[in-house]
Amino acid sequence: MxxxxxxxxxxxxxxxxxxxxxxxxLRFVSPDESKAATLQREQILSRLDQKIQxxxxxxxxxxxDISPGCRICGEGTWSCLFINGICNSxxxxxxxxxxxxxxxxxxxxxxxxxxxxxxxxxxxxxxxMSISGGEPLLTFEKSVNFIRKARKEIGDGLYIWLYTNGKLxxxxxxxxxxxxxxNEVRFDIGATDYNTDKLQQAIGIIPxxxxxxxxxxxxxxLMKQKMKExxxxxxxxxxxxxxxxxxxxxxxxxxxDYTFLHGERVxxxxxxLTALKxxxxxxxxxxxxxxxxCSFVYKNRYQKSAARKRHxxxxxxxxxxxxxSGFIRRLSFMPENSSDFENLIKTAGFYFDxxxxxxxxxxxxxFAIQNLSGKVKVEYHVAQLAPQQSGISEFKSVMLNEHRDIxxxxxxxxxxxxxxxxxxxxxxxxxxxETYQPTSDELKWIHLSRFENIEEGLQDxx
Length: 462
Hints:
Helices cover 36% and strands 21% of the residues. The protein is of the alpha/beta class and 462 residues long. A hairpin with a 2-residue loop joins strand 2 and strand 3. The model has no long low-confidence stretch (mean pLDDT 96).
């Protein structure tokens, strides 16, 4: 069984575990459908080859003109504050329940007061913040309060945007939001049956007006017409998301004749193809409305790696490095000869950890052990927010201000991996950018590559 097959089987099992008996009600793509859809996607991207600028390892087809907020997201310096947890719409595609009021929250952290959230933004050096809901306009004064104070405290270096379904939006609110410091408002017009009357109220007042919606297959032809309307109105960007199945929207999504895809999460095949068709239509017709397809794999790979990197920086130790995927990489050399050990301790770039007894080094210093006998131990650790100390893993309290701190916990993400002489050479060549040459232990490679690098391309169809 090769690497690809192993990963696919792991994802299928994970999807089955998430949905249990309901999994059997899902119609997943067949091998023939997969081939046809993959070819269709390749043909669209091939036709667009000279017109688009793929980004983020191909997980976004075109980043030639995207919102400043989207660029900040790609850099990993964006924080989204969910202001209230309630919504006045019931969109069939919504992935989460929006009917329980809660305090402003981000990444499991509650921020009842703007000051603590602003200090959180500063502590982790965020360049962008957004206000989401549920629906932020249901608690308009609270939303404005957070925005206004963040703008005043951090200044123009912070890019601020707000998500809304637009039902409560009007010109007066647009003026208040602009005065508070909002750079962009993103409208989900799918919540208003694609009516743009409310959106129109933001044009000319909010610097950047964006439409951000899921790519709903049934609305392909409608959206082709809407794109021209949006451009003529003055909408600056169109962001399209891929439909994703969740336990919450399961019953609503299976009422549609969709083909589902396995992966880290279950997604909708036709949604991705719809987004690509709209991107192609926009460029072929020279509409002038930039289309940013935000695929699920982009969000799953880049937003998660960004969070891991932020927290890893607070837990990194001497001799350790952070991988592209955001994991803490800990390499230690286990020489066969004691004399080699004594010499390496004195070598620049090597560090002896007295607590663990490990002889640590970074990939840049691997040349020093090339001709020595021994093995390399590879460990990957993950740092993540923790509401309280578990007592099992390493814990650190990060002070936001004199009254508020947050906890970060560091845990071993994967049992240690031992590399022999041949595997060491392959591994360090891989880290240097060379193409991986398979070894007899494919499972070991799956673990190494998963913790090292962000995967390339859009998702496989299976």
